[in-house]
Amino acid sequence: MWRRVLREATVRQPWSMISSKRCLSSSPTSKPAAVDNLLLRYLKEHYVEVSKMNPPPKVNPPSEFSIVKSALDGNGPVLTRTYGNEEIKLSVMRMAYAVPGGVEDDENDEDMNQLFLHVDVSKPGQDKSLHFLCGLYPDALGVHSVSLRPKLDSAEFLEVTATYSGPHFAELDERMRDAFHGFIEERGVDEKLFNFLQAWLYVKEHRSLMRWFKTAGRIHQ
């Protein structure tokens, strides 16, 4: 959503074309200042435009999950919960941004309704955790892969390890695949998470975009 707004705003205000035309009529000594002032003006305009966007309605996660503090400012887990003696951590990203070429194809709402969900299940005293990579949709959740990974801290949560982590999920027996689906559903990982995670991503993307415009504007002041 925010990415689409940024793209549309840029189309309406083609910076490179406008700055080039104006700078052609300027003296060589005034060109750097003119370009900087023009860029700063557009950064401020877009910052104001994005700041006026209404946030999505507040959505709470399922009651068994807790929101990780400061999750909006990092790339680690978003939600966590305990299940017996297990610790479960969830992290999320848009499928359109994870699949090569997906960012260029995010023209419709369907792309924005596809999320990648990372599910990490660990137990105390064990040095490895069970890691699920899932596709999350408004009405369904599908497991793409299951792997064994060393326990990671929040900063390393989405890193891919180079060591062998297990067979391809599609190569597993159908009954075993169904059992893995049942395993995470029993722990509350299902399509009921979608509404919260979708709204959470909107807020995170909006904050990131606001921060980008603000930081870029400070650099060029």
Mean of pLDDT:
77
**Helix/strand structural class:** alpha+beta
Distance between the termini: 28 Å
Helix content: 40-55%
Low-confidence stretches: 6-26, 102-107
Strand count: 6
Radius of gyration: 22 Å
DSSP strand content: 15-25%
**Can you tell me the overall shape?**
elongated
Largest sheet: 6 strands, antiparallel
Secondary-structure element order, N to C: HHHEEEHHEEEHH
What spatial order of strands do you see in the largest sheet? Answer: 1-2-3-4-5-6
How many helix segments?
7
Task: Explain what the structure shows.
About 12% of the residues have low confidence. This protein is an alpha+beta fold. It is built from seven helices and six strands.
